Design the sequence.
């Protein structure tokens, strides 16, 4: 029986009406690689590159970064690995790159820093591209995009990194490029952003914080932080609709994807893949296998008419209990 359960955990998850929904793992440490493979991750949906930067006492060199990225890309190949460019600032500080601000979550963070420091960004992009030589599974993801101008700036630098490497006679496959939707302005730009990239990935941790004006790390307001708030659900619906109109896949890599009740709604919205912490992988696959997409759509339609997060949660919990 345990053997069967283990095999089931390793199999891709399919809804009862036959929709395959890949479940990827979130990661930031090389130490996560084996646990995520053993737990049946279909790839890495979010590799937080700032984590290896945080444990050093200076910026890692291009060669050092290649070593880090290569190990994770090679070990999951041919399964996809999404490397997110540096997302420091906010609550994530580099000891050797101090940023002091009164409102760090509204300040200099993520893509804003790397666009202002092209030398840091280009080194990282070059390392990602060089690490992917001979492989074909690299996705690059830009964090904290709040406008088309930022996306274009990031794409220009990626293009430049690639051209430099081609001039240096490297053979570099073209990576897939995606944008995180984690700032409310990006929700309203979802379709326009999606048209310019290969995929969208919703960062619900930040998106919920910014939509509801609730610091994700402040315990005093933790009760107000709610993934099933109707505003959050309407925002996610808008993102999935925008991606669909642009004909591009959309994934979700925030903690919300690991919440079984929320996962039902995401399946109903037609999200293409989920990325969760390793500890939640098996549970999320169970949710996918326990529902048809049609049933998830019915539940979503009901929830979208409701006003109280607690009532939405109760309805979904009831559906989970019925599913066993
Ligand atoms: C998010 O914001 O949901 C996300 C996945 O990124 P991070 O938690 O690293 O900010
Ligand atoms: Mg984020």
Sequence:
């Amino acid at each position: 029986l345990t053997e069967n359960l283990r095999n089931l955990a390793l199999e891709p998850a399919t809804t009862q009406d036959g929709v395959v929904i890949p479940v990827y793992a979130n990661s930031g440490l090389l130490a996560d690689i084996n646990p995520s493979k053993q737990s049946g991750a279909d790839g890495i949906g979010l590799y937080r590159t700032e984590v290896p930067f945080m444990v050093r006492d200076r910026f890692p060199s291009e060669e050092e970064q290649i070593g880090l990225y290569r190990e994770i890309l090679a070990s999951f190949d041919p399964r996809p690995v999404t490397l997110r460019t540096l997302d420091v600032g906010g609550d994530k500080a580099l000891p050797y790159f101090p940023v002091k601000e009164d409102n760090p979550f509204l300040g200099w963070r993520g893509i804003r820093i790397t666009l202002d420091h092209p030398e840091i960004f280009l080194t990282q992009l070059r390392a990602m591209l060089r690490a992917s030589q001979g492989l074909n599974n690299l996705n690059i993801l830009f964090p904290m995009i709040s406008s088309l101008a930022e996306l274009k700036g990031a794409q220009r630098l990626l293009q430049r990194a690639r051209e430099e490497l081609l001039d240096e006679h490297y053979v570099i496959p073209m990576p897939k490029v995606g944008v995180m939707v984690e700032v409310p302005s990006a929700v309203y730009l979802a379709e326009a952003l999606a048209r310019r990239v290969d995929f969208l990935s919703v960062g619900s941790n930040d998106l919920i914080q910014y939509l509801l004006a609730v610091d994700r790390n402040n315990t005093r307001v933790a009760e107000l932080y709610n993934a099933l708030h109707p505003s959050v659900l309407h925002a996610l619906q808008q993102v999935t609709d925008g991606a669909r109109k642009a004909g591009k896949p959309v994934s979700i890599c925030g903690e919300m994807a690991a919440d079984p009740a929320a996962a039902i709604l995401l399946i109903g919205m037609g999200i293409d893949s989920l990325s969760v912490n390793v500890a939640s992988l098996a549970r999320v696959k169970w949710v996918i296998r326990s529902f048809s997409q049609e049933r998830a759509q019915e539940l979503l339609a009901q929830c979208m008419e409701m006003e109280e997060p607690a009532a939405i949660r109760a309805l979904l919990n009831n559906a989970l209990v019925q599913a066993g």
Remarks:
- The first strand starts at residue 23 and ends at 27.
- The mean pLDDT is 95.
